[in-house]
Amino acid sequence: xxxxxxxxxxxxxxxxxxxxxxxxxxxxxxxxxxxxxxxxxxxxxxxxxxxxxxxxxxxxxxxxxxxxxxxxxxxxxxxxxxxxxxxxxxxxxxxxxxxxxxxxxxxxxxxxxxxxxxxxxxxxxxxxxxxxxxxxxxxxxxxxxxxxxxxxxxxxxxxxxxxxxxxxxxxxxxxxxxxxxxxxxxxxxxxxxxxxxxxxxxxxxxxxxxxxxxxxxxxxxxxxxxxxxxxxxxxxxxxxxxxxxxxxxxxxxxxxxxxxxxxxxxxxxxxxxxxxxxxxxxxxxxxxxxxxxxxxxxxxxxxxxxxxxxxxxxxxxxxxxxxxxxxxxxxxxxxxxxxxxxxxxxxxxxxxxxxxxxxxxxxxxxxxxxxxxxxxxxxxxxxxxxxxxxxxxxxxxxxxxxxxxxxxxxxxxxxxxxxxxxxxxxxxxxxxxxxxxxxxxxxxxxxxxxxxxxxxxxxxxxxxxxxxxxx
Length: 471
Hints:
Layout: H1 2-45, E1 55-60, E2 63-68, E3 81-84, E4 111-112, H2 122-134, E5 136-139, H3 142-148, E6 153-157, E7 171-176, H4 178-192, E8 206-212, H5 221-225, H6 240-254, H7 257-262, H8 274-286, H9 292-295, H10 299-303, H11 305-312, E9 322-329, E10 331-334, E11 337-340, H12 351-358, H13 387-390, E12 401-403, E13 418-424, H14 434-437, H15 439-454
Parallel strand pairs: 3-4, 3-7, 7-8, 8-9, 9-13, 12-13
Antiparallel strand pairs: 1-2, 5-6, 10-11
Helix pairs in contact: 2-4, 6-8
């Protein structure tokens, strides 16, 4: 009787979680469609006025940019700030005019927002990010592609978004959620010189990495969503992730061009379209014989504690790169019990998971993921990631770190150290919806961009546009 009651509760929780996630996905999609329709309507109804002023149009990179003739330094001399989205995220050009970073990219004139696979593995996304910046056809590597059962080559970037990228022209990266780990893997690839035709790459191509609710050590949520605690690779037979798997397979197999242009999970290199595999290929994917879910070459195995340990065992914190982290939490201790810290200030998508993660207990009949593991260390969370996972790389080896309460405490900044702050927020407070975060949104992103522009440099301070030497 007790087992039946537990099973009924689990199925009820699965139903509620599935409905909440589906409704939120539909809300985001419909918001993007509505925004595009309003924009198209406004273009039809209102013609822009032409004003004559002292601003001149200048042709730059096949586009027009407005340039004001004031004494300034060339904007192109500044290192770009590249914003990397997390799981289920999207870059510029997807979902119409919707911004994953809620418009934060408008706070600086030199920002790039690449569109990477929203569910592809950290390895594949790191490869995609390199070619997005340098240009050329994405090469996932021959050995990796054969092992995972997908094409070696992917999307073609006729022109890189920052082709001059090298040690003399490094980049600032800001990664949200899984995006932070993508940058770490990319930096290690640069150090290991794995990109064919680019033998001069080095870890110094990365000037700074800011992790915003970054998945640096995995999360216990993956087990709640359906990953097996035994290995961190396989899925339970009945779980939220199995429903996600079925939906993604059907989406990729149907391969509706306008829909995939609007939003893409990033699995085109697995050739799952009905045009290529037919009905028999669909059956193989659904049965788990082929595809990313069969080979494990997708994002969720990388987000388990075991998967993050496998990644971290090969990743370094480099001495010439600056590292920063904002670790988020929406929990507090009440009479020694960790519980959600708020009701109204937690997004509905995360409330159940915040409670579940705060009460997480590793199965006693399964070996802990690492030596010294304690459940209580992983109870504080933001609904998607555990706070302990977001501060700095900890497992299997802890990297140098320093907790910061006030930014003035860490001046001057030192490379090779993870500076981190604990911030009261759920996992998506600083993305998608700017109004939810209010003034906190501006405080976070202003501090990130100001640090990149004024406090992080290797040789000499940067001269900002419209900032003369005599100011």
